[in-house]
Amino acid sequence: ETPSDMMKYLRMAADAKFDYAEYEYAKYLRDKSPEDAKEYLRRAAEHGCHQAEYAYGKILFEEGDREEARAWFERSAVEDEWTQTRVGLLFYYEYEDHESGKAFLFAAANQGYEPAREVLRSIEQGLNARIVIGVCDLFYYAGNILDERSEDMYSQEHQIDYHGIDK
């Protein structure tokens, strides 16, 4: 199918109130029509898409509506450890609600999310944990790029024998 067909079906799913489709459509609209993107994010958030809840909260936070943003952040951090970590950092540093911030961070750490554990260690040592999470993100994204490129570099086409060394 062509990209225009895919967008047609995405829009149909979004208009049928499929939460993740609304979220994806909002991402597509972000640069083209920010107000429409915000509306689709709101809809997706109201329909329970936790990625949209977090993204919509970020927009509200940046617009200065910190209390409504806080409610969306809390909703978004129910089950996803990445989101729990980000919300924990927001609460700890931006809202200066250390107790709630740590509760979200502990929830993520208890699910085995190593960046949350590192953030908690940093806080205990009096360091700025936002720097730690930035470094963790950097390694995560760099690792994904290397992983994708190594597949191409060491594919069967190249017939390279690295004596069992994997990517």
Secondary structure elements and pairings:
Elements: H1 3-15, H2 19-29, H3 34-46, H4 50-62, H5 66-76, H6 81-94, H7 98-110, H8 114-124, H9 129-153
Helix pairs in contact: 1-2, 2-3, 3-4, 4-5, 5-6, 6-7, 7-8, 8-9
Protein described:
The chain has helices spanning 3-15, 19-29, 34-46, 50-62, 66-76, 81-94, 98-110, 114-124, 129-153. With 167 residues, the protein is mostly helical. Helices cover 74% and strands 0% of the residues. It is globular and about 55 Å long. It has nine helices and no strands.
Main traits of this protein?
globular; 9 helices; mainly alpha; 167 residues
What fraction of residues sit in β-strands? under 5%
Radius of gyration: 20 Å
Number of helices, counting only DSSP H or I runs of 4 residues or more:
9
Approximate shape: globular
Query: What assembly state would you assign to the polypeptide chains in this entry?
Result: single chain
